[in-house]
Amino acid sequence: MKIGKLPNDLLKSIVFSNIKYKRDEVVTRAGIGEDCAVLNLGDDLCVVSTDPITGASKNLGKLAVHISCNDVASNGAEPVGLLMTILAPKGTEKDEIELIMKEAGLVAEQLNVEIIGGHTEISSAVNKIVVSTTVIGRQARECFANKDSIKIGDKILLTKYAGLEGTAIIAYELENKLKDKLSLETIEKAKEYMEKISVVKEGLLASKKGALYMHDVTEGGVLGAIWEMANAISKGVKVFKENIPLTSETKSICKLLNIDPLKLISSGSMLIIAPKGKADEIISELINNNINVSLIGEIIEKGILIEDEGSVKEILPPESDELYKVV
């Protein structure tokens, strides 16, 4: 198998097919495009999500907290507690573990989430440090988005810019290679994107304003997330390439490395489906809170399509992320 997330066909055939026992408490269960499991546990809903960090060797603690918190935020939930597992190879220095925990502790405090447990181990099972986090969030019952209410004509929004996380990771991991071709200013600006990878704020804001569905953009990039979203909601989508925002730094780095920025991991960006009549209100709320947002498409009857300069093409299932071609 290729490096990266398990392909969706294998997820269906060897993972989801073996999850057979179901409980009544589960409201949303494992599926393509579903970032979280939702349990009905009384007055509030409990939202749980887990993610590993495997595509980076730097900023591990920071990424580990953000990525899982982003997942619960994409369900409109507030992150409450976090479980963190660190698996490190033989020879790992104490300072490396300490740095990860310092980063994680700082980001957790920024997001108002408590690290409530975890596991740290030096193991021959890994050849580099792997960090995995599980986040537990809480969500008011009235804010739970019902994707069954999504209608043709509802709008698709994207927060911030495509390729954010991948751009930052590449700037850190390949700095020596990039500085021969790109300015120091470009590289440093790209590194700063690591501070923009949280979607907790926009997730909570959009949820309160009536977002029908949200999905954070991770491996597979914007196009992969759009494909997953369409499968999760069982409806068609059409997006316009010219409306998908890219920064000049992302464009420069991706052009130099010959990779597609729309297929590049992009934590920090969130897809939001807004009711047709509430899209402007959600856009205004995000902009008023200093969150860039773009209207990139709409819900259609069938098909997963992208229009580029008048030509309409099908968006194919995501493959290995573009990041793995270069790091």
- Distance linking N and C termini: 17 Å
CATH architecture level-2 label of the largest domain: Alpha-Beta Complex
Question: Hey, roughly how much beta strand do the residues contain?
Answer: 25-35%
Helix content: 25-40%
Q: Would you count the extended β strands for me?
A: 13
- CATH homologous superfamily assignment of the largest domain: PurM-like C-terminal domain
The overall pLDDT, averaged over residues, is 92
What is the global morphology? globular
Oligomer: single chain
Radius of gyration: 19 Å
Low-pLDDT segments: none
Name of the top-level CATH class of the largest domain = Alpha Beta
Query: Order of SSEs, N→C?
Result: HEEEHEHEEEHHHHEHEHEHEEE
- Widest beta sheet: strand line-up: 8-10-7-11-9-12-13
| Secondary structure tally, helices | 10
Describe the protein:
The chain is α+β, with helices and mostly antiparallel strands and 327 residues long. It has two domains: 136 residues, PurM-like, N-terminal domain (60s Ribosomal Protein L30, Chain: A, 2-Layer Sandwich), CATH 3.30.1330.10; 179 residues, Phosphoribosyl-aminoimidazole Synthetase, Chain A, domain 2, CATH 3.90.650. Helices cover 32% and strands 26% of the residues. The chain has ten helices and 13 strands. The strands form two sheets. It has a seven-stranded mixed beta sheet with strand order 8-10-7-11-9-12-13, sandwiched between helices. The longest helix is centred in the first third of the chain and has 18 residues. The protein is globular, with a radius of gyration of 19 Å. The two termini are 17 Å apart.
